[in-house]
């Protein structure tokens, strides 16, 4: 597919409302994860989009929510928490691995105790992105607002444990940032506003400038251990295949143009992160790592036998071709075993995929948390 190829007009309108503007497997059940040695991580903080939102959108006036069945079908207690998957997110597995907590709670949950807050929260919001326009399209929480919530969080904790202890908690905490897919799939390629101003290379530059501002602000707030996820192979998302294939039902394959955009972005992102490490590093020991999710997810899709997946280009919920958010609902058909599917709905990975992604970046997390 060439960069000039466009979706049919009715599909663009549909997507503008629908899309969430978001070693071999050892067991079918994700289960618990092994903890690292010499752990000194007191908390985890997460920023980004639906890949990291554990339920903040439950408390936002938006239609993009996942707090109803069948979401959460395989979560403990079969609770639809607001996570856009059948169970846990990669950030949950990371939190468990570093020994902080089993599940990362959404910051906007009014029932959180001070103990919940002290071990960290997620500020992520499904549909968000680095481009300020992206969250506006679905009325969700922007990255700048997520930073404001983080500042508010610090004040709440300071009132209980004091400024010095709060500062030490922040400096030793793990920070995860996962966003960018919505900026391309939903914003740039679906809504024509940005394409009137930017071509693809200049839009990438714009996004990375926004990302740099975000990272700089995060560093200024005391973050010292930051992991940044790259983009996935966007052309392999079931909804992207459906919208951009001549016969998406019978002949389904990744659309390499979209994945090539992700590869190019990820390459530049890694270069930027290296530069940020040098420019933002100081005596307090800032440490930034790139979390590669592109290659492991691509491996799962193209090496199905190695990972024991039976379905890689459609989701478990509904037809798996278009359903996500409110179209994946209690009346939807759901596959019998989501662990056989790379994707839970037409956009978001299954819990098992999230665990495999965590395992793929585990060495990077180890580097991030080492003393």
| DSSP strand count | 6
Please name the CATH architecture: 3-Layer(aba) Sandwich
**Helix-strand topology string:** HEHHHHHEHHEHHEHHEEHH
The tally of domains stands at 1
* Multimeric status of the protein: single chain
What's the story with the biggest beta sheet?
A: 4 strands, parallel
Return the CATH class. Answer: Alpha Beta
State the distance separating the first and last CA atoms: 47 Å
Radius of gyration: 19 Å
Query: CATH fold name, please?
Result: Rossmann fold
Structure classification? alpha/beta
Percentage of helical residues? 40-55%
Describe the structure.
The strands form 2 sheets. Strands 1-2-3-4 form a 4-stranded parallel sheet, sandwiched between helices. The protein is built from 14 helices and 6 strands. The N terminus is likely disordered. 40% of the residues lie in helices and 8% in strands. The longest helix is centred in the last third of the chain and has 25 residues. α2 crosses α13, α5 crosses α6 and α8 runs parallel beside α10. It has a single domain, classed as Rossmann fold, CATH 3.40.50. It is an alpha/beta fold.
